[in-house]
Specification:
There is one protein chain. With about 100 residues, this protein is mainly alpha-helical. The chain has two domains: about 1-35; about 35-90, no CATH class. The protein contains five helices and no strands. It has helices at about 5-20, 25-30, 35-40, 45-60, 65-85. The radius of gyration is 15 Å and the shape is globular. The mean pLDDT is about 90.
């Protein structure tokens, strides 16, 4: 990870803002999210997806987001995490340029 995490935090905030129905700040800056494509260089299995969900829950709780607001969001995040599992996909993991996979 880079020393300065602030740009990544802002990018993630823009993504969630858009993903939750807000302004298209993320797409305006970076184009379509193409999450599977952007994460494909990383092997993601069920364990990694579950760990990501747990860590996200901890972060949202630590940030003070009430559980009753988190629950409907995390129902959607669980679907997203399952979608990102790619450990069994038998394709090259090198960058693919401007090829759209999802």
């Amino acid at each position: 990870y880079p020393e300065n995490l602030e740009p990544g935090k802002q990018k993630l905030a823009w993504f969630f803002e858009q993903w939750l129905g807000g302004p298209t700040s993320y797409s305006d800056r970076y184009g379509h999210p193409r999450l599977r494509r952007r994460h494909f260089p990383f092997v993601i299995d069920e364990r990694a997806a579950g760990r990501w969900l747990r860590l996200m829950r901890e972060a949202w709780t630590e940030a003070g987001v009430p559980r009753e607001l988190q629950d409907p969001i995390f129902e959607r995040l669980a679907v997203l995490a399952r979608h990102m599992i790619n450990a069994h996909d038998d394709v090259p993991r090198e960058p693919l340029g401007d090829v759209y996979l999802d």
